[in-house]
Amino acid sequence: MSGALCGAAGDLSQLAGELAFDNGRYTDAAASYTLAASASREAGAYDLWACALVRHAYVGMSGEQYKEAAGVLSAAERIAKRGDGSLSTRYWVASVQAEAYAGMGHLTACERALDAAEKVADLTGVTASSGWLRFDGSRLAEER
Question: Is the pTM here over 0.85, yes or no?
Fold first, then answer.
């Protein structure tokens, strides 16, 4: 499959996962996010791949499986570092990591992750926004 086709499949699979997640169909959401991650990996779309993993972590956190979610988010963090530095992906990963750490009761790790997420404010210029990446840091104060 071509890179562009895999990227489109990753994007659409994330959308399908969001719809399933919002309707409480967590097994379907997890399957969609797994497909999104796989297709995005094949496309070499690191930001899209990392976002699919972040959304997959939300499935775990909805079931209070914070440790498992933190593991998925650790992988997303590594992948996001290979992505486009002008996008907010790595900061969104850090923001969601903070939620997982808070759920585990790891306050210091939570604060460190929130500090990292707040660096989204350092992005300059116009950043791309799409259906799969909408993080701008506007809710970080509330999350803290």
Answer: yes
